[in-house]
Design brief:
Structural class: mainly alpha
Helix content: 55-70%
Distance between the termini: 23 Å
Order of helices and strands: HHHHHHHHH
Strand content: under 5%
Number of strands: 0
Largest sheet: none
Radius of gyration: 18 Å
Amino acid sequence: MNKWDPIGLKQSQKSRLKHKSIKDISSALKVVFQSIINSKRGIGILSDGSLPGPFNAWMYTDPEMAEKLDNIGIAIRENTNSVPDQMKEIVICCIAVHFRCNVEFWAHSKIAISKGVPRHIIDSIFNNEIPKFEKNPNGKKIEIAYQLSNEYLTNYRISNDLYETLLLEIGSEKGLVELVLVMSHYIGLATQLNIFRVPCPGNLQYFK
């Protein structure tokens, strides 16, 4: 057992997909497998040799699809630098809670805090409470990202006023597009993780 293994899962919490280790996949998929564990994500492998998170499911696709999924994930992390990290992590945490996605919340609540998002804000989001935002420039960015997430996930639209506020705060349409791409990527990942019932590592699953 290692730090990537889920602990004490009930049958109803276990992954629906059989875990595939590197010996179970084609040579072409092995290249993608190695790319995932060697990327800046810091992904390890479970004690059975399989990949955690959404990555095991990708080993069921053809190599071209798996490679593209891997590349999109890396691009979302590394090529969205026109928008502040705190804003990105807030929208991901809001998406994780909205979709009750264990793996996303487990990973990105930690990243958000490491990027300077106050822990009490993450706790409020998890508890479906309106956070108390700090009255400083970083607090304003976090609050606007929260407003974006809350309004979109509630109404599937955002108002013109919020759109203009976001554009002014981020400072460019490029940055705003990047933030929307982050949102759409993690909504897609939540779908994969929830339908395949992927648990997060350790002994705590945040959502049933």
